[in-house]
Amino acid sequence: MGQQRQRVLGCNVGLGCALLAAISLNSAKAGWVDVDTPTDKLTATSLIDGSEYELVMSDEFEVEGRNFKDGSDPMWTALDKSDDDASAAGGGSLHFYNSSTVTTEDGMMKISSKLGKTKWTHYDPIKKEYKKVTKYFKSGMVQSWNKFCFTGGIVEVDLVLPGDPFIGGLWPAVWMLGNLGRATYEASTNNIWPWSFDTCDRDLQHAQHISACNNQNHFGLNPKQGRGATEIDLLELMAGDSDGPLPATEPPISLPYLAMTLQVAPGIPDNRPQSGAQPRRNDTTSANGHTQLLAQSWYDDLVTKGNTSINPFFYGTYLAETKPEEPVQRTKKEAFQADAIGSMHQVAQEHFLKPYTYRVEWQPGRGGRLDWFAKKVSSADTENSASSDDDDEDEWVHAFSIPDKSIGDLMGSQIPNEPSYLILNTGISSTWAFPYDVPEWCTKCYDCDDPNCACSFNPGFCKMMKSGNVAMKIDSIRVYQSKNDTAHPGNKHTVGCDLPEYPTREYIKGHEYLYVREPPFSYTDTGPLEKIKVGGGSCQTDEDCGGHLTPTARGRCTLSSSSFWRGQPTNNCQCNDGFTGPHCLAVDHYDDTPGVYDMKKKMSLFDHPRAFMWNTDMVIFVGILGGIFVGVLITKMGQRVDARRKGYTPVGPGESTRPANRGPLQFEDLIVTGRSI
């Protein structure tokens, strides 16, 4: 358990302070660690400050055949939805996320991308008509949203990149997003993504939904605190064949490469770098001394090393006023610029053949920093090498670094300080590594089974997809954090989605409609996340329930008692302690300490009597109630004594109370009640 947080932001008096003070922000140590993690991986050394970090989360994916469908795993949720909302004007996504594409095999999580049609009908509220939608590809996304979150530390992932390195079209990524926004649920991220700004700016207040200008943010959020769903991209693959170095890259970078990016708002509004060119750092003058071009506004002190260049092809996104047909709405006042502070790191064919390790060190908040690392390849062809001159696998390339001062000085934003979750996915998008220009005669369509669409794909893409062997394979993912707050810059490292200084769950609970799927997929949903099933999966033997796994059997196959009485006996998995999921194959992960919202629900005044303050009016009121109660009690007792003196026997309601010495029952002895007589 971590140390108690010394300062509680936005704490109100009474019960609120008692509640917030009761929660340790460094809230999980063992609850998210995989039992299969090797002992030599329980700690890691920071490549920046040299101090030791402790493992707080891991998944080794050693158990074969795990299922990540919603309600099946306590850490991960594999999505079953379109990548863009049904009513979207179109974001280029060509795939449907299907949870069946994600499983574990040969000690790795396997996220497959494949051909396969998904059809559905949705209602267009603008045109007031139903439309049929078809996606021709299936792929996978898993996210730990509202389950496992953390702030700061080291993230390490071992993975094999998917597909052919020289055929563009896949968009695999490992990234983190603040818990207030749910990836691919556009309504939840509108004017939330990717804000990292905790200053009241009246000109930006409308664009930042949770602004530091707000005296009350409601739904458990702290007053006067700017919030957002910040994004840190550990890696995004851009594959393809560039036939040599790409323009404006320094040093020269060719396809394939990994984009390593911080996406942040507010962004630079004016005099921005132009796509396809490096930022112009100085004014250019003519021979006679006249200024021809002004220096452009971009972030200083960005450091790239090895075969890594500042990314000149993506400097951010302008989120403009929306059109009526778009799935979310922004007014002109709510439009804003978001910046992408990114780099391009060269990768080679080897990265697609065996696992390599990638790391980001995240020191959160004011004074913090972000640093990306990649393990050097052991051998690669000299024409497309991922490291300059070192073939030692045990050494790292410090690819990219962003100091907080760089973004704080220019725009007042900060290195993300939001509780964030992990996302692993492979997308397929016409806006990512697809042909930029297609012939005028080309029919723009994206069905690999339609010969007319061939010109819309890169050569070899459909053949690659038809092979059925396209998958990103994750060998492990681990998160480490420091217990020594003085050993690193920035703020404390914490675990949890719902922290006193950065609460999220009450807000999510109050806005569940933003975090659920669109119709028709939402018809069977009970909420944003289904309750985790503990056993109940069909089985034939104990092996189907993890009974064969060592050192601890995870479950056993038993006869279902309910099915026996129905006359149709079936076998179902029953989980042993510490394991969960329909077939008991998942470790029962949890936060060691409940979050703010859960504590509020469990807490009563008597748990914290000091938070309950008596005043004079309350004492008088309670005294009056007590006097009335005593008076009624005395009166009733007196009536019973008088009845006994007169020879009556008080009995139950609706019965006679006639004297015991009277004769036969007379009509006047009857007592008429609400019951039948």
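Above is the first protein from milestone M3; the second protein from the same milestone is given next.
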Amino acid sequence: MNSKNSPSHLPDHVLLQIFRYLKAEDILNLSSVSQTWYRVSKDELLWKSLVKRDWNVNPTIGIAPGQTSWFSEYLRLWQHTPILETEVLKGHTHQVLHVSFSHNGKYFATCSKDGYVMLWDAGYPARIKHYYDMKVYSWKNTQFSQFNESDTLLLVSGVHFGNHSNTGEIAVFNLEEDFVIQCRMSNKPYDFFGTWYNDNYLLSGDLRWLAHLVSTSVVWLNRASQESDSEFTSIMNRMFKFYNRSASSIRSITVANCRSLPQRQHTSSSPTPSNTSDDCSSNKSCHETGNPISHPDLPTADTKTTDRSSRKEEDVFFHNSTEGTLWPTNSGEFQSWRRDSPNITAASLLCNTSRMGNRDYETKEESKSDDDEVEKESTRSDSPLACSGAEASSQRAESEATDDDSEEVLDPREKFLIFTMGSRTYTPHQIGLKRISPFTFCNRIDIGPSLAERVAIQRQERQALEESLALGIPPPEPVWQDFEAVADRFDPIDHVIDLNGHIIGMSLSPDHRYLYVNVRPWPQGCIIENPLQPPPIAQEIDIHVIDLVTLKQVGSLLRAHRSFTPNDECFFIFLDVSNNYVASGAEDKYAYIWDRHYGVVLAKFPHQDVVNAVSFNPRDPEILITASDDYTLKIWRSRHRARQLNLPLVDLPVGMEFRQRSSLLN
């Protein structure tokens, strides 16, 4: 054959046309034929077409931000995405409900219906480092775990025994002292889960019913270390008290470190202000092409400094409240007291905490009616976050002048408190957001009146009540169903986003810029007439993406996974987000992974039963762990990581890839 007519001398445009019909593996093999073929095999337009062909990427979507090579992008999606089942862990003896990694990537924790929490060494092979049986504290199961920022403490939440119990508990484990329990606190409802506020403080919840279909959710800020030398040392402060309607409650709480916050208008303290609520059905940005990854020009969650100009915005959202001259308040753990006195500063009145645990409180207050408890609750001024900016500054300055060591600024970063809620029905269908500006934690409790003074006050109140009843004047009762009439007793929710479906999971992106939410949608245009009868939910799960700077839904919905349980049996399906990927469990016995930017599903990972949770290694997102009802955890690694460990790729089970035209070879 004439050398000029040999395939190695074909024109470039002919070679490119031929290569477009080949598999990526074949193109890479052919690149060694000649220098010309090697040069053509690296053509960027060729690999751009292969990325969009093999992963069915929308042709209008450009390359991921920060990337310059389509060839590198193809290799990332093919060789650097978790896909190989490298380990199967069988440490638990019941359904595995949750898995979470430490920030340094060295450990991961797992929770299960067997009542154990386990701490694993994340090296290869993974092994159990510590474990603890929480059934000794009457826990039915462990359900959620989270490491603090320094990876020295582990938050674990669980459910108490009881067929109809909605009460849970949070335990904090010290990872530097052989996995000992450092403290425990009540958590109600149990699917509040709890979360770290910063490295040394965590959030827990409480729920109290006020009237038919109406309740209040209280968010508590707790010290992770509750040892103290004085009974007057504060270990917990009440942060917020929210109004719940339609038999709903605050659930699935998390905290985002955000400082580049939008300009927002606050005109109502209603939990569902119409001017600050977004509806996906009317929001065109919900279905934009492409999904955001991150914005490097914006500060990330690791930034420690505070933007003072944005801090001034807190004046818009926080409101003043009135104080009586002498009246009792019940902050949920004990009875505290207030009175107008030049010797008691306004900031010192924020210390409505007690060294009693929540469990002790629940026992002592069990016989009281919920209405009486809330009537005696302190107003929003009890919260260090509920004051206007000017008043808060004045209070802090006054307190510092009289008691410099009684307060501490917990965290200089602006934060968002994020949670699920409902207003039309009891199932969670909305995302609520509450902005938190830097504030002080009151370390010492105001002891209040003496015992003799409290007895005298109670005697006066009883006498006044008897006189009123003798005159035929009944005591004033709050109309809890009328929110406008009792709004001043609760903290406003700054922003509400309605997702028109049952929310079953959410996770923050690593930079805390985006919130990813698992939602089982309602039928389009459905009307809810009875809050106790929510609409039927779809088997398909949608992943919505919310930009926490604009507070709008962005990108396209991520779809592929499915759930089958009805509303009254629906449970949380945990998802996780890395810089490039999103992963989620599902009830269809698979876990799924998507590319964040291209918005396409890359693969699914099989189990023998429901996959409840997934977790990326934050230091190495080429490692993914899935937790399932089949009692196992599976560790999935990329082909690249498996080669580094010298694992036999041909012998490892492979997840089901959605890459078209892929060969059977690894």
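Note on the second protein: The mean pLDDT is 80.
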